[in-house]
Amino acid sequence: MAVQEFYNHFCFLCRWLFQYIQGANLNFSRIAMTAPVLTSIVPGAGPLHSSAYFIRFYLPVKFQASPPLPLPELNLKPYVWDSHCIAVRKFSGFARDSNIVEEAEKLGISLSRSPWANSTSSASGYAYSIAQYSSPFRIIGRVNEVWVDINASELDGCKLSGVAAY
């Protein structure tokens, strides 16, 4: 998929999520936008072996127990995230094709030199995820992260909890 096609498709998916939080759900609830917006990359799962991706955002605590159901035409699926641990690399600026792969590679290099060198997990099916914390209107001081799942069941410091997302 070409960069412009990816961007157009990405923006289309964001519009569905935006409609959902603006009340396009079965009980017409407006949902406060949360951060981060998470884009998970699945290499080779798209057409002609291109990458596919999933876009999610966390539901506020108010909606965790009973998320509003989206209108059927939005074709959004709820996702309850099982407890897991992640390795994170923070980066600034806008998250674009030109820098997210580079940041994911830098995280991979850091992990290869750490005690977690052989602890990456493919259980989620994602190669990595990009967490974007800043509003699209913020130009300076943007905060992003690249995440990779790690198999940390035997590691100390990984507190597990479930989170609902769309």
UniProtKB/TrEMBL annotation:
Top-level taxon: Eukaryota
- One Pfam family matching this protein: SOUL
Q: Which family is it part of? A: Belongs to the HEBP family.
Instruction: Show the PANTHER family listed in the entry.
Output: HEME-BINDING PROTEIN 2 (PTHR11220:SF1), HEME-BINDING PROTEIN-RELATED (PTHR11220)
Identification of the protein by name: SOUL heme-binding protein
